[in-house]
Amino acid sequence: MSNNNAQLRNQEEVTQFNRSILYWIISLGLPVLILFIPTTAHFTSHVKQFFALSLGAIFLWAFEIVPNLIVSLILPVLYMLLGLAPVNVVFSAWSNYIPWIVLSGMILTSIAEETGLLKRVACWCILITGGSYRGIIYGLTIAGVILSLPITDLTARVLLFATISYSICKALELENGGKSSSGIMLAGIFSALNPGYIFFTSTTQTMMAYQSAAKLGVSSSWTSYLINNGLITLIWCFLCAVILDLLFKSERNINSKAYFLEEKKKLGKLSLAEKKMIVILALIVIAILTEPYHKVQIGWLFPLFVGVIYLPGVGLAKPDSLKKLNFPIIIFVTATLTIGAVASSVGGSKFLADLLTPIMSGSKLYTLTSVWVFGIIIKFLLTPLAALATLTEPIVRLAQHAGLNPVPVLYVWNQSMEQVIFPYEYALVLLAYSYGYLSLKNLMKAFSIKLVFNIIYYSDCCAFLEANRFVLTSEF
């Protein structure tokens, strides 16, 4: 038996080694091939070097043959050493609020979870919907909408809802990969991801997209984004819940009310720590809603609210509260932002826009649909953050050239980043899938149907928004 185990381990090591070699060949070989493409008036040597270097980094991120942190550290330095952009451009990502709001959001979420407040909200939402199988799906959806405002870190939301969904499946002793367990796990994934586009600060993707679009004069306040996109996305969240309700009928009668009552009982009465956290979150909401008056971008205020947690008399944080945070993600986010900054500086964004414009220009509905389809295709090669950092500016240029309002085009572009068929396309979906209660067949079935409905729903909604420009209060 031990010899067989040793042989299996050796085979796995050989397979892993061969796979690693293939990944290295792709990651280094394709960028080298780009360097042999002849230069033109627009495809200059700097543009060529930028694409070669950026593509190599993106492949290394995707294949994870080198830790993402290492690639993220090296990429900006190589841009600088090769003279593709000056230091102030290469490291400009650190001078905007996105890395700081991501970090602050991670800390606030971690502290809120430690107080028990997040679990209490989830239990409350499921109990008010009855605790049945259908109630779990809609309860998780409601919780996702509520928590997408205070939890700005998308990874934290996925972890929270995947864990809650897994706990439900386990407590109810559901069959692994069955309709009931798959429906509940998918409800958790949808509840974490879908509401992220109701609020401007609920996903890094939205903030990154507007960061790139701002270079071309397209911007949005928190409130104008909510007015334009909030209701559309809220309806979409519940439409996805209906899809799950119809698609995955439970094999047996499920009543989880007793389970959630017990979980709520374990939490006890609302603690002083939870009350303090509610006050802090309420202050954040007030700061967000009053942004037009105090004129301070909300991203810069989040670090200040983190500081409030440590004030005398508040004391919500524990000594180990910061140790479990995923700090390398901050370096990764800034590295993807750097790609966009350098692309703009060397002319790479304009080059891509010139390539895309003849193909994707047409009627309003055609252009919106083309942007969505392009996002779906490009995500097979790039991570969502890398795609948004590199290609948002060309997409905005395309919209402006086609005479379209860029704001609804950005909505469609963002939505395309969330659509997958296979779990490997999106690390957060893969993370939730790894919990084990969701079968691959059911995941692909649900996400494929969601993908079809997404293009129909969002293209029509955004075409309506574009046609009624008075609805769009964003500045551009």
UniProtKB/TrEMBL annotation:
One annotated Gene Ontology cellular component of this protein: plasma membrane
GO molecular-function term, one example from the UniProt record: organic anion transmembrane transporter activity
Principal place of residence: membrane
InterPro entries: SLC13A/DASS
Keywords assigned: Membrane, Transmembrane, Transmembrane helix
Topology of the protein relative to the lipid bilayer: Multi-pass membrane protein
Transmembrane helix in keyword set: yes
PANTHER family reported for this sequence: SOLUTE CARRIER FAMILY 13 MEMBER, SOLUTE CARRIER FAMILY 13 MEMBER 2
Name listed for the protein in its UniProt record: Sodium-dependent dicarboxylate transporter SdcS
